[in-house]
Amino acid sequence: xxxxxxxxxxxxxxxxxxxxxxxxxWRAALRAGAVTAGTPAGARxxxxxxxxxxxxxxxxxxxxxxxxVGTDTVVGQHVSVSAGTVPGQELGPVPLLRIGDRCVIGxxxxxxxxxxxxxxxDVFTGPYVYITDQNHAYADPDTPIxxxxxxxxxxxxxxxxxxxxxxxxxxxxxxxxxxxxxAGSVVRGHVPDRCVVAGVPAKIVxxxxxxxxxxxxxxxxxxxxxxxxxxxxxEPGPLSGAGPPTGAGPLTDAESVEGxxxxxxxxx
Length: 268
Fold this sequence. Notes:
By secondary structure, the chain is an alpha/beta fold. It has 2 domains: 1-33; 34-256, Hexapeptide repeat proteins (UDP N-Acetylglucosamine Acyltransferase, domain 1), CATH 2.160.10.10. The chain has helices spanning 2-33, 40-43, and strands at residues 35-36, 47-48, 53-54, 61-62, 67-69, 74-75, 80-83, 97-99, 104-105, 110-113, 117-119, 124-125, 130-132, 134-135, 151-152, 155-157, 162-163, 168-169, 174-175, 180-181, 186-187, 190-191, 195-198, 203-209, 213-216. It has a 7-stranded parallel sheet, with no helix packed on it. Strands 4-7-10-13-18-21 form a 6-stranded parallel sheet, with no helix packed on it. The longest helix is centred in the N-terminal third of the chain and has 32 residues, at 2-33. It is globular. The termini are far apart.
């Protein structure tokens, strides 16, 4: 019937207009909610470089006065970036979290700082990466783990590195420059420059050798190379100086590698 056809067409037009209005409003909200150096939210950070943006909607963002973000860095949607345990906590005179220049932090990533996390320049992460310098302790077998005092250890991610989707970077980890961390890896220990680590726990599976390029593990070294023992980090310098010293060689004979011992206060 002509009347029914006219009403159906009107209903379709209303739905189309409604959808366009919702999408327009969402795009407007994305623009208005983004945090940049020129916004009041950006001014709450210890440093927030020009050209950087925290994309809206974000995850949990607090402790901004102890967080530094370099220039031209993109922090994706639903990323949680925090310093301290709860909003409003007094955390001392120096920043606890530094993210360098030209970084890209993937959707849903969590970066949780309590003592010191330094991320160098040009570090890219996939989605849902987790980086923390604090973990639950379980030294007392009779006390619920959630009620035991947590253990902290500084974390450093060297410039030019890539952290694959779902990677977990545990307290005390020092990742060198231009390192690839495989998706889903759990990293704890010292990772030398220019290598690929993968697995749970992560171990070296490939490394760059000058003159030979990227090579897998040598025959006779076992299937994978354990990471070096975690140790104290040097005093954090400028954002571009993140990462460990470059003296560690890319590969080591299996006999000279001891793996990762338990720390004095168990955290993993």
